[in-house]
Amino acid sequence: MRNPLSETIVQIEPSGIRKFFDIVSEMKDAISLGVGEPDFDTPWHAREEGIYSLEKGRTFYTSNAGLRDLRQEICNYLYRRCGMVYRPESEILVTVGGSEAIDIALRAMLDPGDEVLIPQPCFVSYVPCTILAGGKPVPIELEEKDQFKLTPEKLLEKITDRTKILIMPFPNNPTGAVMRRKDLEPIAKIVEEKDLFVISDEIYCELTYGDERHVSIASLPGMKERTVVINGFSKSYAMTGWRLGYAAAPHVILEQMLKIHQFAIMCAPTTSQYAAVDALKNGDSDVEMMRESYDQRRRYVLHAFAEMGLDCFEPQGAFYAFPNIRRFGMSSEEFANRFLREEKVAVVPGTAFGACGDGFLRVSYASSLKNLKEALGRMAKFVSRLDGERA
Amino acid sequence: MREKILTILEKNARIDIRDLAILLGESEVAVANEIAQMEKEHIICGYHTLINWDNTSQEKVMALIEVKVTPQRGMGFDKIAERIYQYNEVNAVYLMSGAYDFTVFIEGKTMKEVALFVSSKLSTLDSVLSTATHFVLKKYKDHGTALVEEIHDERMLVTP
To answer: I need a labelling partner for A260 at 20 to 30 A (CA). Which of A17, A33, B62, B119 fits?
Structure first.
């Protein structure tokens, strides 16, 4: 028999998260700070709207791009929160989670050999999706000393004649880094000068802390026509399981993305779309409540790290902290594995998000205060034991 | 800061001042002072425990009484309310808009005890015109907290 498999797909490493998940799953009573999704339920009014749509028998396909009402609400939202104007009929595509949007944006824009700049540590899917689209992933290794922001120097270093796309994964999973307006401006300038395009993954945009709200790179002058904005409902509205996201992009790009979506997916789940209309219409106060609650827990976690003497730069977005464990002289995986075995707490090794994540851990604070307290208490114990071993 | 303190305390009155201060990014002293001040101003009126008595062996009966009254000259509703809420059996008194004037929550050991209280103490007040008693059979949610179901975290332990 011939080899049934594609060499390209065989070469792709399975997600590092998956590997760790298998280890954690065997430990029944572990406390997990490894969860990459909100600990809130979807606001009831949105769930209720989903139920109602089922009762009404709205169980058919929607148009490929998504319900017209939903696309309109998305445009209203983008204007309300980011001051950006998009046309519902030609510049919005509703997708199966932000992940699908990432995939089809890359497929719509890449030719074989085109290079995609991927700031790391980052979400796990940009590299494999780039490879599957025939592109060449080029990691940009971000550093703690820059608060894991993308700097103009680091960007310029990696640009070649083949560079076509820059991925902008901010607010960032796993580091919690954000790019403020002043950080984005020089990046936008380079993007324009070098004639690049941007895929800006803003799925965590509502979870930006501090006085300044999230700024989309697409809202900077000259950037809208170069940017595919990716967003969704999973994090802002605690709707991960509904699998619903969207892309907002110039028509020329969106038109081609729509084609892939049309053949591969048809349309995003109808029930989820109805629920999302309601989430956007009536969910601003829920978002605010959740943001405040994450922000409080963010402070709690940082405070606990400081007390146990664990270095951690201050994350200002998403719901992750990314403490530095280099001083213990072990790899992220060793640390995470020992911590899990000895204290029964799961955190994700930084290497799951790119090689430069070594020496760091992703700690999710989307967990109850009671859990956080217990887990961080065990971490303090573990850290002081490690210090004892080294002394 | 006040509103944020209250939002947290409303759900968890037992939280450490220290934890509260960390969560809010304030100093312990500032938070403690603010709470003391709010107690003084009667913004915080007490720290109670939400108990589901149904899960204990203690028998308790609760009733909601609709009360219609004639407000008296120079006294208004407040004086009448005061005469009602002085009784230990009375848990809560609210002035209402609509078809009747007061909602009164009464707690007793048995239905009979509650009914007797209403007929002998409440109905006989001068200003009270009529009462209607409704017994509470089951509490599903109280003070914003669902009493019936246990909440499990059903998320997978590690996700991207």
So the answer is: A17
pLDDT of residue A18: 82
Q: Is the domain of B8 the same as that of B60?
A: no
From chain A, pick out residues whose CB is under 8 angstroms from the CB of B23: 296-297, 299-300, 369
Quote the pLDDT of residue B148. Answer: 77
| Contact indicator for B125, B80 with CB cutoff of 8 Å | yes
Q: Which two tokens stand for residue A105?
A: 């944006």
Q: What angle do CA A353, A124, A343 make, to 5 degrees?
A: 50
Q: What is the pTM of this model?
A: 0.94
Q: Which residues of B touch A35 (CB under 8 A)?
A: 155-159
CB contact under 8 A, A346 and B155: no
* Interface confidence (ipTM) of the complex: 0.87
Q: Is residue B69 part of a domain?
A: yes
Number of domains in chain B: 2
**Separation of alpha carbons A16 and A236, rounded Å:** 25
The answer to whether B24 contacts A299, with C-beta atoms less than 8 Å apart, is yes
Which has the closest alpha carbon to A228: A125, A91, A321, A336? Answer: A91
B99 and B35 assigned to the same domain: no
Angle at A34 between CA A29 and CA A39, to 5 degrees: 90
> Which of B22, B153, B157 has its CB closest to that of A300?
B22
Q: Are A300 and B155 in contact (CB < 8 Å)?
A: no
Superfamily of chain region A7-42+285-383: Aspartate Aminotransferase, domain 1 (3.90.1150.10)
Report the CATH number that the domain containing residue B65 is assigned in CATH: 3.30.70.920
Chain B residue closest in CA terms to A26: B157
Per-residue DSSP letter, A189: H
Number of H helices, E strands in chain B: 5, 6
CB within 8 Å: B158 and A15: no
- Across the interface, whether the CB atoms of A35 and B19 are under 8 A apart is answered no
Instruction: Please give chain B's pLDDT, 160 residues, in tens.
Output: 999 999 999 999 999 999 999 999 999 999 999 999 999 999 999 999 999 998 899 989 999 999 999 988 777 899 999 999 999 999 999 999 999 999 999 999 999 999 999 999 999 998 999 999 999 999 999 998 888 777 788 898 898 8
- Interface residue B4 vs chain A (CB under 8 A): yes
Residues B65 and B101 in one domain: yes
CATH code at A45-282: 3.40.640.10
Domain with CATH 3.90.1150.10 in chain A: 7-42+285-383
